[in-house]
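Bit of a strange request maybe. I'm writing a small parser for structure token strings and I need a real example to test against, not something I typed by hand. Could someone generate the tokens for this chain?
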Amino acid sequence: MARRLELSWHKASKRWRKRVTINGRKRDFWFPFGNSKSDTEGYKLALAAWQEKRTEIEADLRNPLPTDRYFGKHVLRKAIRYRERLEKFHRLEDHQEQADVFKKEVSILKRLQRRKTPPTQNEVAKVVASLTTPQPNPQEVRRWYEAAYTVAKHEQWTTAESTDKSLGANSERFISMKQADVPHDLSPGRWDSLARSARIFTVWYGPERSLDSITGKTLVDFRTFLLESTKHPKSSGGISRKTAEDRRKDVNQFLRWCWQIEAMDSLPRNIEQANMRISFNPAKIVLFSVSEVRQLFEEADDRLRLYLLLSLNCAMLPQDISDLQFAEVDWKYGRVLRQRSKTRKKNTAEGHGVPTVDYLLWDETFSLLKKFRCSHEGPRLTSTDRVLLNANGQPLKRTNIGEDGKINNTSNINTAYSRLVKRVDPQDPKPLKTFRATGASTLEEHKSFARYAQYYLGQSPRSVADRHYVVPSKSQFDKAIKWMGKQFAQKTTRK
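Reply from user aminoacidic:
Good idea to test on real output. This should exercise your parser:
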């Protein structure tokens, strides 16, 4: 049975509606988000707006005001807003003396607003009557009204109070929406990158400005800003060209999202143009020599040696080692059958996603894995439980978003490896992922086994033949893994 939505979709006006009964009267609240009833992101925005409105309604119901004070509160709010707009208008027109008059009157009204008991409508009227008012002639009244109306329209399109159009408001909505996808549909690290890029663009362009004012020239100028940032060292806030390109693409994703929820009318024409990309040189591939691998194995304790062996034997990164589950290990024949943690969500309905690789474990890898796997003492483990945990029973790699919105990364594997490298080779420390690159490059050197390097890495098939017609030979891949093990003094006695 389908889950009933809390809001209903009004097809004619393309808005979400919530109908509630307040004090015996039915009231409708409208939320203009999304393109259709199936627009999930639009519904999430509308639901968040309704929840905020409901909190406000519930607060009013818990502390009901007498009628005269209820209307007094709203009349006072309108009077303050009116004079704030007049002050802004005269500042823009460079009428500083008149602007100062309205500023003083706003402060008088706000003092009345801060009273513990809201003023009555009559009390507000008496205070307003003592302030500056237009002369009783139609022309001056009209000028005051037009001045306030002009600023109100300007605010509607350019300030953060505009819930539909301002860059700042929509940037924070985008970040909140993406955070709701963590960790199932989005990794914390990827969310952090999107949030950082959206906020950098917002600060650069101006949070109060309208999304509809973003043009192709805006994207060209932002690209120039990113390129200028690449000229400075990282110690003074500089970034690499790759980071600059990543931020440019993240901002494009944010703008497409704004267009999809109808927060902006159209996308800049050059958002998809190839000449907007920022080129960068790919990172240099770093490898271990055979002697370096053997030295690291010898210097590491048994637990760390297991992590290093899994990195080389099965092309695993710390996240893969941490995510390894009991159901993915054949404990009888010493094999690991799994997809990469990073890309397993990219599978498609047609089966063109990342492969499930069947790794044959070397004797020492299998022996240490059995030695350090979680015990079956206490509650029985399920097939989806992690094979390896730290001393406190927690995952070896933990990433989460703290209450302050910052990413917290903890990796017992990286910590142990960093200590080892500093002790063995402090002058030229190489990252742990070097084992993965070393394994693939070693296979690439073999005349027959080179074709299995991509499969060993767990990457998606590239050619049509690999995707539709060719299944990697299990026996040949086993031979490739055995041969690679021999290069690093690792034996495999099992068939």
